[in-house]
Amino acid sequence: MISLFGTTIAAASPWILVGIPCAIGFLVYIFRVRGTAHQAVVSSLLFLKELPRRPVGRKTFVPPLQFWLELAILTLLLLAVSGLYLARSGKHIAIVVDSSLSMGALYGAGGTRLDQAKRIATLDIERAPSSTTYTVLSSTKELTPISQPHESKTETLTSLQAVQQSHRPDALQQHLASLVSDPQYDAVWVYTDRELEGYQPSPRLIVNNLPTDTSTSINAWLQSIQVASTSGSDILTVRIGYGGASAKDAVVAGECYESPSTTPSLIPGKTIRLAPHEGATTTLTPPHTDWSYCRVTIKLQDSSLFDALPLDNEGWVTRAPSEPRVTLVSSLSPQQLGLTAIRTIAVTTTASNGGAEKNPAIYHRVAPPSPPATPSLVILPPVGALPWGGSLLNQTALNKEVTRWDASHPLLQYVNPALVVFPEIRPLECPPSATPILFSTVGPIACAGEERGARYLVTGFELFPFDGAKNATISIFTLNAIKWLFLQSAGPASGELPLSLPLSAAVTGAGYILPENLKLKLEGSSITPPAPGIVQLEHDDGSERYIALNSFDEHESNLAHRSTLSISQAPSRVATTSGPQSTRSLISTLALLALIVVGADLIRRLLRRVRWGDA
Amino acid sequence: MALDAHTLRLLDTFALRTRRSFYGARQGTHRSHRRGHGVEFAEYRSYELGDNPRYIDWNLYARSDKIYVKRYLEEETVSVFMVIDGSRSLTHPTLQFKWHAAAHLATCASYIALASHDPVTVSVLGGHQSPQFWGPRSFAPLGAFLDAEGTQLIESSAAKVDLVEAARIAATRVRFPGICVVISDFLYPIEDVVTMLSSFRARNMEIHAVQMLGAQDINPEPNSSGSTLVDSETGEEIGLSLDPSSRDQYARQLTAHTEAVREHCLSAQIKFVQAVAREPLAENSISILSTMGLFV
Q1: Which of A34, A210, B167, B233 could form a disulfide with B199 if both were Cys (CB 3.0 to 4.6 A apart)?
Q2: C-alpha angle A68/A69/A73, rounded to 5°?
Q3: Hey, how many other C-beta atoms are within 10 angstroms of the C-beta on A423?
Q4: Of B107, B142, B105, B149, residue with least CA distance to B128
């Protein structure tokens, strides 16, 4: 192993390198005893044979070009066989910067906790040996690489500044467990506001915990915003969390928009009293009824205090959308099927099978002619039909029980299929994109899956008529199915900012309305929202819908609560050299060089032969 | 092997000159052993029955009362026998320049002989034919024959040629003893050289031996680090380092060998000439022809 300028050259099988001096000796022997590979044809050896055959002395042995070429070939091949590789002699360190929501808290007078973490990381990097290489990672819900692996000190400092504040909670505990056990990294440096429980400083894992005083951290945050309609007017129920040690007053206000082009209507502020470490709930009333979305803010009233985490003082809410329209393809009417009793969807009927291509559809005892692009519920497709590449077995079983089921599937939430005996069951052959969720003695009887961004459910048993509490298990399953298929993107978004938001196939465009400076790109059938706000969805029928994205996380916002993390796995050995990933094998390079030398030798021989021929 | 016009003009100034007289096949320009009806008086001979009375010297009869007939020297052609060493020491691809020089020399000599209507028989030692060419018009076929033989010998990887045996076979093809020009590098043991030349001497021929050496034969390629030397005849290889002292020793041995051949030729009344194959071939050949004394 040879270290030079921060790079180590090592061999996987160093004992093979003994062959290099052997090769030199062998070649010298060959060239001295047998002469050079340069053959000179003479008319006769009559007199030359009588010359004294003195071996060439060591001092006078000037190796010809042929000697060097053959030595180069042998050496390159031996080096290649020995598995020569380049390795970094410096350590490879993972710089993990916690950029979760809580890192946006103000830290002294010098910016946020994230800024302070960057400053500490900068100092650490500057003090480290120059041969050390880094990989900068941003830790939120996901572990995002900010830099390329093995960046130098200068590049790392630049990459460090590119770490952006996130609005998501962190999953540092899981990330650290994987990073510490990753042989790619010789050490993991963590910069976070969370404390590591039972942390024993080790060269393998260095946690730089930002010192925070939880007793003086004051923060009020929005916990949830609910919309309720009562007697023709809407009421926003706002739940507020508070992490201060003393009771304070806070003002909850808001503004509502009818559309992006209209002037917002302000909701008068309401002052509430926040008890120490307790939350409060208040209501706001939008000034008019035709609002589409609202922004709700909270502000501590005492000017001598500042809110340590301003990022969670803002929330967004949209008016609950009207129930989705679902097309029924059936020989029976919605009334006969009991669909009018389900008020979460608006059912329309169509006479033909092919008319339900743009809207979500329920296919009752018929099969769609092609894989649908919209959410679809297919109930008891005809025997022999071929929905989505699958096929119904040509048999019908009667009075069969459910033998097993996938209880973790959301369709089976609150459903106990063991209590049900279906009067009619048709075993299904699930399409490739679906998974069976219910099984009977004759095979799967319900398949749920997703095709081209649209969910679908195929059942081999009858769901209708929907009769509510009379058949509770089937009714719950039906409502679950309707919610899972048709109501997946309806209503306000959850409190946690989703990493990826799936959209229906009818959505043709998506973009942030508020905050206006954010950009959003539609990636296939989903979007990746970077921050809370209001997202406008454009459908192919020209209609528009709004989605409220919030980042309400009690764990991140409650700064008074000491957030800890623990690593169950003990830090592994301290690596002294880089792992296999930090090395670069030179085998192919050496083999290529050997090939080039062989080629050069051949060309040289050919040219010499041509010269002889000319003579 | 074609000769350019300039070379042909130069060759036209040469004429074949023999030191001895030979029986010829046709009437020509060289004195023959045969007595006949030439111009130059040779001798008197007593009249014998059957002699043509035209040749009776009546003056001598008047003085001596004896009948003598006058004999004159006949002038006939002289056979030229071109023997070229076709062994690998001349025809190896790396040494073929020696062959080209030898063939060029043979072509030039043949042209002079053919121009005086002397028959030329070409025999390549190691080849299979010894064609005879007559008259100036057969010069082109002679050149083509040498070209074909040369190409075949150079491109083939024939085994070692037994020169002694090849020379013996070639000598048996001589119909009329005449001039024999042997072109070889004579880099063989002196015994073989003697035996080879003796084959032609046994046919009572006037032999001219031309030792055609290459530049590498005189001054081997300097290689202080040693190289594998391959014998063009046998394929034998030796690794050798030719330092200055070795080169001097080699030069001495070559000179001694050449002198041995020369001494043998001198004792056997063989005209010996040593030549080095050089460019341009025409000048080289004419220079050798001038040195040989065969052509004036």
Answers
A1: B167
A2: 115
A3: 9
A4: B149
Mean pLDDT of A215-234: 79
How far is Cα B119 from Cα A78, in angstroms, rounded to an integer? 69
A312: closest CA among A104, A126, A461, A465?
A104
Can you tell me the ipTM of this complex? 0.80
As a whole number of angstroms, the distance between CA A154 and CA A137 comes to 16
Bridge partners for B56 per DSSP: B69
Q: What is the mean pLDDT of residues A151-165?
A: 89
Least confident of A479-483, A583-587, B242-246: A583-587
Are A612 and B187 an interchain contact pair (Cβ–Cβ within 8 Å)? no
Which residues of chain A neighbour B225 with C-beta distances below 8 Å? 31, 36, 56, 60-64
Give the pLDDT means over successive 10-residue stretches in chain B (296 positions).
85 85 81 77 89 90 93 86 90 88 92 90 87 88 89 77 87 86 91 90 89 87 65 80 81 91 91 89 88 80
Residue A446, CA atoms < 13 Å, CB-side half-sphere? 27
Q: What residues of chain A, 172 to 231, have a C-beta less than 8 Å from chain B?
A: none
d(CA A531, CA A549): 8
Among candidates B220, B225, B243 on the partner chain, residue whose Cβ is nearest the Cβ of A42: B220
Cα B177–chain centre separation: 13
Q: Which two tokens stand for residue A346?
A: 């608006």
d(CA A361, CA B81): 113
CB A234 within 8 A of CB A225: no
User: φ, ψ for residue A139 (rounded to 5)?
Assistant: -110, 115
Q: Does A57 touch chain B (CB under 8 A)?
A: no
Sign of CA dihedral A426, A429, A434, A438: positive
Contact A222, A243 (CB under 8 A): no
| Cα–Cα distance measured from residue B32 to residue B40, given in angstroms and rounded to the nearest whole number | 11
Q: How many residue pairs from chains A and B have C-beta atoms closer than 8 A? A: 121
The token duo for B48 is: 């014998």
User: Chain A window 538-597: which residues touch B at a Cβ cutoff of 8 Å?
Assistant: none
A123 CB-near residues (< 8 Å, 6+ apart): none
Is the separation of the CB atoms in A173 and A566 below 8 Å? yes
pLDDT value of residue B121: 92
* Beta-carbon separation of B187 and A46 below 8 A: yes
Q: Tell me what the mean pLDDT of segment A26-33 comes to.
A: 76
Alpha-carbon gap, residue A438 to A454, rounded angstroms: 20
Taking the C-alpha atoms of residue B279 and residue A82, their distance in angstroms, rounded to an integer, is 54
In DSSP terms, A296 is beta-bridged to A254, A315
Mean pLDDT across A439-459 = 84
Q: Quote the CA–CA distance of A197 and A204 in Å, as a whole number.
A: 16
DSSP category for residue A487 = S
Cβ partners under 8 Å of residue B49, min gap 6: none
Looking at the DSSP bridge assignments, the partners of residue A511 are A536
Interface test with B, best of A28, A43, A609 (most B CBs within 10 A): A43
Query: CA geometry: angle at A483 spanning A480 and A487, to 5°?
Result: 175
**Alpha-carbon gap, residue A328 to A357, rounded angstroms:** 11
| DSSP-derived secondary structure for A531-585 | SSEEEEEEETTS-EEEEEE----HHHH-TTS--EE--SSPP-PPPSS--GGGEEE
Burial class (CB in 10 A: 0-12, 13-18, 19+), A112: buried
Cross-chain Cβ contact B232/A44 below 8 Å: yes
Q: What angle do CA B94, B99, B100 make, to 5 degrees?
A: 100
